């Protein structure tokens, strides 16, 4: 018998204004791999799926590029994409050296959780202005 409810997050989609610039950011600067690319000429869009490992096992990000180069605005309800990183300080130094501007340098969160833990985090923007949160692995 199969489960009648969803059981895994497959991907999250964001619209991008320049697919190659976004792929440079996500793949070359953040170390993701482009898993696959699907071009829909009749529909006027291209999808690129990026992430850290096989889609069968991991959640990925779908980068959607519309061929008509429409401009989109971000809603005020979207927060950020969070990525875990082993060495947050070295990662942020490397990102800054490659021209990525940090919105928030690595540091402990202002507020602690119910157990007194304060994650070490940093924030940056992708080429389309989406917030990316880096969280130091524990």
Describe this structure in words.
This protein is α/β, with parallel strands linked by helices and 138 residues long. Helices cover 15% and strands 38% of the residues. It is built from two helices and eight strands. It has a four-stranded mixed β-sheet, with helices on one face. Strands 5-8-7-6 form a four-stranded mixed β-sheet, with helices on one face. Strand 3 (45-51) and strand 4 form a beta hairpin. The longest helix is centred in the N-terminal third of the chain and has 11 residues, at 19-29. The mean pLDDT is 92.
Question: What are the main properties of this structure?
Answer:
single chain; 138 residues; 4-stranded mixed β-sheet; 2 helices; globular
Report a brief summary of the structure.
By secondary structure, the chain is α/β, with parallel strands linked by helices. It is built from 2 helices and 8 strands.
- The whole-angstrom Rg is 17 Å
**Beta-strand content estimate:** 35-45%
- The secondary-structure class comes to alpha/beta
Say how many strands there are: 8
- The rough form would be described as globular
Distance between termini?
A: 38 Å
H-E string: EHEEEEHEEE
Question: Largest beta sheet: what is the strand line-up?
Answer: 1-4-3-2
The residue ranges in which pLDDT falls below 50 over 5 or more consecutive positions are none
Largest beta sheet, briefly?
Answer: 4 strands, mixed
Q: Specify the helix fraction band.
A: 10-25%
Total helical elements: 2
């Amino acid at each position: 018998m199969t489960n009648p409810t969803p059981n895994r997050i497959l991907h999250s989609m964001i619209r991008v204004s320049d697919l190659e610039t976004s792929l440079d950011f996500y793949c070359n600067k953040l170390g993701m791999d482009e898993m696959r690319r699907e071009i829909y000429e009749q529909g006027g869009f291209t999808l690129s799926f990026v992430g850290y490992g096989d889609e069968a096992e991991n959640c990925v990000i779908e980068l959607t590029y519309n061929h008509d180069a429409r401009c989109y605005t971000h809603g005020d309800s979207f927060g950020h994409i969070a990525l875990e990183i082993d060495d947050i300080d070295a990662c942020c130094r490397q990102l800054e050296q490659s021209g990525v501007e940090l919105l928030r340098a690595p540091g402990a969160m202002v507020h602690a959780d119910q157990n007194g833990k304060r994650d070490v985090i940093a924030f940056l923007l992708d080429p389309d202005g989406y917030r990316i949160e880096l969280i130091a692995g524990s």
